[in-house]
Amino acid sequence: MEDKIMDKDRVVGSAKVVKGKIKEAAGKMLGDAKLEAEGKADEIQGKVQNAAGGVKDALKGE
Prior knowledge:
Layout: H1 8-30, H2 33-61
Family: Belongs to the UPF0337 (CsbD) family.
Domain CsbD-like: 9-60
Organism: Skermanella aerolata
């Protein structure tokens, strides 16, 4: 039976994307450019981490 558990990087990366989107939206609403920029950075980091986890998952499947 194949192991279908996602790599932890995908889970953590997805959480960072959500956190980043929330921070970015809050920064826009509050007019806080720094918070908005931090949110965008968190989102990008999360996407990269999620992609890395996807590669690990693909390698596990082979």
